[in-house]
Design goal:
The protein is α+β, with helices and mostly antiparallel strands and 440 residues long. It folds into 2 domains: 206 residues, 2-Layer Sandwich (Cytochrome Bc1 Complex, Chain A, domain 1); 183 residues, Cytochrome Bc1 Complex, Chain A, domain 1. Helix content is 45%, strand content 18%. 39% of the residues are buried. GO terms for molecular function: metal ion binding; metallopeptidase activity.
Amino acid sequence: MKHTITLAGALLLFMPLLHAQQVSYEEYDLDNGMHVILHQDNSAPVVTTSVMYHVGAKDEESDKTGFAHFFEHLLFEGTENIERGEWFKLVTSNGGSNNANTTQDRTYYYENFPSNNLELGLWMESERLLHPIINQIGVDTQKEVVQEEKRLRYDNSPYGQWSIVVAENLFKNHPYRWQTIGSLEHLASATLDDFKRFNEIYYVPNNAVLVVAGDIDIAKTKKMIQDYFGPIPRGKDVPRKTYKEEPITETIKTKFYDPNIQIPLLMMAYRTPAQTERDAYVLDMISSYLSSGQSSKMYKKIVDEKKMALQVFAFNNSREDYGSYIVGALPVGDNTLPDLQKEIDEEIIKIQKDLISERDYQKLQNQFENNFVNSNSSVSGIANSLARYYMLYDDTNLINTQIDIYRSITREEIRDVARKYLNPNQRLELEYLPEQKESK
C-alpha cells in the first residue's frame, strides 16, 4: 500500500506538466495603433472582451496622484450612447459580468459574456474609448466613491497603511513611492480640464491592447473589431518618463503607529529589479520556498514548531520598472519583533549559504507548474495574461513559455540571488505598532 500511495502522489505532483496546454492566439495592429490579440476556444459558449491601457499610478504627476485609479471608476459613468448609471445594468441584463482594476503600471477593463453577446462587449469597450462622458457630475460622484474606498481600505483598515510606509521609504524618485489610490487632496483640487487632459493623453488606441478570448469565429471577430475600433483616431504618442533610484546601502529603520491594530507587525522590505529580469523570477521562487503554505520553511519553523508568530509571509511584488521583496510576521505571546527578525534572518542566511535540498527544489518546481496551469484555466484568465505579457513584458508568448524560465532556474541561482538582494544593509525595517494611548 505504501508504494501505491507514493506512486499516486508522484503522479499528482506531475499532473500539471501532463495537462499544460499551449495557448494559441493571433495578434495584429489596427491602423490607429491599437494592438489586438485573439484566442479561440470553442469548448464553452463564453467570451471575454478586455482592454488594457498602458497607464497606471507611475504615469501621474507628483502633484496630481490618483488619476489612473480614478479613471477606473470614472469610465463606468457612461458614454454618449450609454446613459449614466446604465453600464452595469446593460452588462447584467445580457447575462454578463464586468470589472476593472488599476496597478502602478496599467489599467484593465473586461466583460465576460455568453458568446452570442460578443458584439455587445466590443461595442461597449469601443464606446468607453471613443465616446466617454467626462463631466462634473461624474467627477463629483466618483470623488465620493474613491474617498470612501480610501477610508475603508487604508485609513480605517487594520494594517491598512503598511504599503504606504514601505513605498515611501523604498522609493525616493520613482512614482512607485505613492499608492494607486493617490492623494484625496490632489483629486479634490483637480479641475474637470485636468481629467479631460488625462483622458486625451492615455486613453487612446495606440496606448491599448484589445484581447478577445473564448468562443469566437476569428474572421467574424476581426470584422467586428475593425467596425467598432478601426475608425477611432490615433492619439498622440504617449510620453514616458524614466526614473532611477540609487541603491540602498544602509538599513532604513522606521516606525508607524496604527490606531486600528492591537498586535504589532514586523516588515522588512528590499528593492528588487523589474519583473522582466531573470532575478525577479528567482525571487518568486525564494518567496514560495520561505512562506508558501504550512510546509514552507518560515511557517513550519516560526509558526508551527516554535509558535512565535501568528503569521509569517514573504512575497515578491514585481513591477514594470522595479519591484519590492517583502518579508514579515505577526508575533504571538511575549515574542517581540526583534525575536521574529532574528528567526527570519536565520532562514534567509541559510538560503544564502547553502543550496536548498533537491526535494525542496522539486517541490518548488511542482508548485510553479501548478500555478502556470491554473493561470490559463479560464478564458478570462487567458485574456488577462495575454494582455499583460504583451503590454508589460513585450512578449505575448510568455503565456506559453514563462514556465520554462522557472524550470530553468537552478538551486545555485536561488542561493546567489538571495545573496545579491536580501541583505540587512539593503532593506527597510518597519515596526508597525499599535497607537500608544496617552495615560490620563
